[in-house]
Each structure stands twice: as C-alpha cells, then as structure tokens.
Amino acid sequence: MHEDMEKVLITEEEIARRVRELGAEISRDYAGKELLVVGILKGAVIFMADLVRCLNIPVRLDFMAVSSYGTSSESSGVVRILKDLEQNIEGLDVLIVEDIVDTGLTLNYLRENLLTRGPASLKICTLLDKPSRRKVNVQVDYNGFVIPDEFVVGYGLDYDGRYRHLRDILILKREVYSGKEQREN
Ligand SMILES: O=P(O)(O)OC[C@H]1O[C@H](OP(=O)(O)OP(=O)(O)O)[C@H](O)[C@@H]1O
Ligand SMILES: Oc1ncnc2cn[nH]c12
Ligand SMILES: [Mg+2]
After folding, report:
1. Which residues line ligand 2 (CB under 6 A)?
2. Dist. CA 101 → ligand 2 center (Å)
3. Residue 152, by phi and psi: left (phi above 0), alpha (psi -120 to 50) or beta?
4. 103 lines ligand 1 (CB under 6 A)
5. Most buried of 54, 83, 182, 183, CB within 10 angstroms?
6. Closest atom of ligand 2 to CA, residue 157
7. Which ligand is the nearest neighbour of the Cα of 75?
8. Is ipTM > 0.90 here?
9. What are the two backbone dihedrals, phi and then psi, of residue 11, each rounded to the nearest 5 degrees?
10. How many CB atoms within 10 Å of residue 17?
C-alpha cells in the first residue's frame, strides 16, 4: 500500500462491482432515452469514464469545473463556474456525475444552476457520500457508497492534486495533511 496511506477503504474490485450495478440501474431508468452525462472536473473523471462504459443507452458527455468554495465554513460557501458546459441542455435528460458529496455545497450550486437551463430532467450520481459533513441538503439519485468522515483519496479523489491515479479509495495518513499545514504556517 502507498506509504502515505492509512488504509484501503474501498478496493478497486469493490468499486468496479458497484459501478457496474449503478450502470445497470441508470440504463434501466433511462431505457429508450439519450442521456447527457456531465462530469465535474477533476475528481469525477475516472468514475465517469468507468460508469459510462457500463451504460447500454445512447450517451453524450460534457464537463464542468467549479471553484472549491472558500475556506469559510459558512453554509453559504460561494461556488464559481471555472469551465462551463459546451452545449445547451434545454430539453435534454441530464445526469451530473460526481466523485463525492461532502458538505453538498458544490452539488447544490450545480443543481440550481443547471435547472435554470431547462433540462427535461436532471439527476445526480455520486460514487461516494459523506452524510455526516452535509451543510446543505442535496438529493442524490444514484449513490455508490456511504462513507465515514475520513479524508479519502484515489480513483480521482485528490489531496493537493496528488493520488488521483491510485486504483483504490484510501484513507490518507493524518501526518500527510497536518504536515503540509505546518509547513504552510
Ligand atoms: O460536497 P462538497 O463539500 O462541495 O465537496 C465535494 C466536492 O469537492 C471535491 O472537488 P474539488 O472542489 O476539491 O475539486 P476537484 O474535483 O478538482 O478535486 C469533490 O470532487 C467534489 O466536487
Ligand atoms: O474525502 C475527500 N477527499 C478528497 N476530496 C474531498 C472533498 N470533499 N471530501 C473529500
Ligand atoms: Mg470535485
């Protein structure tokens, strides 16, 4: 296991099995329709790549990037769009794909924003859900795993831009991020 990691939380095999299940469920729900899958950069990219290849319906892909809200712990955290969709979603069936829902601020903003663009339908799929950390309620339609309040990396999730390439979902050693804060102070 990677030296910066405390332990494996979800193995590559468990992820793959759950992604196949989610793909089958989504394919059933959208049978006969075309789906626009919107991946939220950067963290959702790896999950999205595996998920869409488990769909047996017509699919188009698009991406958005939003700012991480400021360090303020207020629930009114501001989220800005850094990269917007390339196409008009009016009248389309849209599925937002995320790697994790933590405070819910990112998804809450995205859902509100995309609803103003008139999609025929808008649903949310996340690989991971940390309900204990929620600051705003956001409805998730497809949920991979509910996880405890631990900082996880791997399978797209990062710390300081690192570890996204790891094949499992792992818990990062505290000294990795506590050490960085000390250096920064
Ligand atoms: O529910 P929230 O508290 O809003 O947190 C979840 C968001 O935070 C992470 O993204 P981040 O903004 O770190 O950017 P990244 O996807 O590029 O890692 C993660 O990928 C989610 O998008
Ligand atoms: O546990 C986690 N790991 C990586 N990024 C995020 C964002 N919110 N929660 C996270
Ligand atoms: Mg993200």
Report:
1. 100, 102, 151-153, 157
2. 8
3. beta
4. yes
5. 54
6. 4
7. 1
8. yes
9. -80, 160
10. 11
Residue 23: CATH number of its domain: 3.40.50.2020
Q: How many domains is the chain partitioned into structurally? A: 1
**For 76-133, how does the pLDDT look when each residue is reduced to its tens digit (9 = 90+)?**
566 889 999 999 999 999 999 999 999 999 999 999 999 999 999 999 999 999 999 9
Separation of alpha carbons 35 and 25, rounded Å: 13
Six-digit token pair at 24? 């089958």
- Distance (Å) from CA 90 to ligand 2 centroid: 31
Round to whole Å and give the CA distance between 97 and 35: 12
Considering the chain, what is the average pLDDT of its residues?
92
> Has 84 been annotated as catalytic?
no
Residue 108 inside a domain? The answer is yes
Residue with the two structure tokens 């998804």: 107
In the structure, ligand 3 is a single-atom ion and the residues with CB under 5 Å from it are 43
Residue 171 belongs to a domain: no
Give distance in angstroms: CA of 98 to centre of ligand 1: 8
Angle between helices 45-52 and 12-29 (to 10 degrees): 60
The amino acid present at 26, given as its one-letter code, is: I
Flag whether 118 is in a domain. Answer: yes
Q: Token pair of 131, please?
A: 């309900």
Range of the domain at 61: 12-147
